[in-house]
Amino acid sequence: MEGAMSNRVMSCCVSPNEIKNPAFFSPRTGIYSSKHAPRTLPQNPFLDLVSFLFSHEHQGEIALVDSRTGFSISYKMLRELVDSVASGLQTMGICSKDVVLILLPNSVLFPVILLGVLSIGAVVTTMNSLSSIDEIRKQMRFGNSKLAFTSLENIEKIENLGVLHHIVAVPEDLNYDKAKFPLFDRLISSNSKIMLKPIIHQSDTAAILYSSGTSGLSKGVVITHRNLISMVELFVRFEASQYENKSWNNVYLAALPMFHVYGLSLFTMGLLSLGSTIVVMRRFDMQEAIRAIEKYKVTHFPVVPPILGALVRAKSATGCKLESLMQISSGAAPLSRKVIQDFLRAFPHIDFIQGYGMTESTAVGTRGFNSGGSDKKYKSVGLLAPNMQAKVIDLRSGSCLPPGYSGELWLHGPAIMKGYLNDEDATVSTIVENGWLRTGDLAYFDQDGYLFVMDRLKDTIKYKGFQIAPADLEALLIAHPDILDVTVTS
C-alpha cells in the first residue's frame, strides 16, 4: 500500500512548511497548475463541435475501418455521410435541442450518426447496447428521447416501450439490405446539400452521458459543445502533439466502447480531427484484437486494465510480438504495479502511459508521458492537462494540501461538465466554489507534478481508524501467481 503508507509517514514526520513548494503549486491558493503550456481554445461563441472537428486540415485518407470485414469509410466520405444523416434527421422532424439515443455497439457508423445528430444542434445520449429493458426505459424517459438508433436485435425491445417517435435500425456498415433498414437508408441517402445549419452556441448542450457520479446512483452528465471542443484540444490533439510522428500515419484500435466517454472522446471525435485511421472492433476479443493489430499495422491501442493483463497472457500463450504497436494507454481504473511490470517485460518496445479523466470532466484530467526519461513513473496517471487546475483537499479539515499529501482531488477547467440532468442537489454538491469539480477520488501529487490516484473515496475501507484503499489490497493480491484478476470492494 505504497501510496497510503508514504502519505502517513510524511504526515507524521514532516511539516508542510519544511517542504519547498514547486513552481506548479501555490501554497497561498492551494492550486496546482498544469506544467504544460496553455493551449488556445476557440473563442467564437457560435462554434459547434462538428464544425470544429472538420476545420482541421490533415492528410488522412481512411477514417474508419471495420476490423472484421475491412469495410472502410474515407475522410471525404465521412463528411458527406455526416451531412446526409443531419439532413435526413431534419426531414424526420428532429430539431435543435431534441434528445437522440444511440443504443449501438461499436461500428464504423457510430461516429457518423453521432456527428450527424450534433450537426443539427440535437443532443446525443448513449447507452450500452446490452442494457436491460428497464434501464433503457428509465434513460429514455429521464432524458425525454425523441428518436433512437439501435441494432436490429434491439428494435422489438424498444418498440414495446412505446415511448419514442422514431426508431432507426442501423446496419454494421453500408453493405446492407435496404428492405431491413428502410429508415436508415432514407437518412443516409438524404441530400447533404439541403441541410440547414442551425445556430449553435458553444454553451449549448451537446450530450447527456450517464455516470455513477462522484457518489450514489447513475446520473445524466450534461456536456456542452464547449466541453467537447476542450476535450478534443486538451486531451486528444494535445497528446498527439507530444510525438514526432504525423498523426495521419497513426492507426488506432477501437476496442473500448464508443458509448463511454473514454472511447467516445477518441474514436467518435478527437482522432477524426487528426486524420488518424480508426480500426473498429464491434466487441472485444483478444484473439481478434491481435489479428487486427497485425493485419492493419495498428500503432496505438487505448485500453482498460483487464485488457493489459490479457495482452501479457496472450504473449505467453501465442508468442505474439505486436511489432507495429508504438503506444498503449490505459485509463478508467487503477493499475497494479505488477500488471504494469509484467506488461513492460512482455512488450519493452511499446510506450506505456496512463491517463485520468471522468465523465464529469469530459475525459480531461491528466496524461502521462513516462517512457522517455530515466525516472519512469508508470504508476502515475501523469501531469495535469493544459488549461487544467487541481486541488487536493484534506478529508478532515477541508484545507488544501501540498505535494506528497493525499486527499480528495478537485479539478477546474474548460472541460468540466455543465451539471447533472434534473438533479440540482447533486450538481451543487459536486461542482463547488466557482466551478471546482469534486472528483470523489483519493489522490496526491508528487514533487514533480505527477498525479497518483489511490482509489474512490466512496470505496475506501475504514479499519481501526485507518483508511485503506481497495486498489492497494488488489495490488497485493494480484501479485500472487495463481490469481489472474481480483476485485476488492468496501
UniProtKB/TrEMBL annotation:
CDD domains, per database record: 4CL
GO cellular component terms listed in the entry, alphabetical order: peroxisome
Listed GO MF terms: 4-coumarate-CoA ligase activity; ATP binding; trans-cinnamate-CoA ligase activity
Record's catalysed reaction(s): (E)-4-coumarate + ATP + CoA = (E)-4-coumaroyl-CoA + AMP + diphosphate; (E)-4-coumarate + ATP + H(+) = (E)-4-coumaroyl-AMP + diphosphate; (E)-4-coumaroyl-AMP + CoA = (E)-4-coumaroyl-CoA + AMP + H(+)
GO biological process: phenylpropanoid metabolic process; ubiquinone biosynthetic process
Domain AMP-dependent synthetase/ligase: 57-421
Cofactor: Mg(2+)
Coiled-coil region(s): none
Keyword field: ATP-binding, Ligase, Membrane, Nucleotide-binding, Transmembrane, Transmembrane helix
InterPro entries, per database record: AMP-bd_C_sf, AMP-binding_CS, AMP-dep_synth/lig_dom, ANL_N_sf
Transmembrane segments: 99-124, 259-281
The protein's Enzyme Commission number: 6.2.1.12
Family indicated by similarity: Belongs to the ATP-dependent AMP-binding enzyme family.
Entry protein name: 4-coumarate--CoA ligase
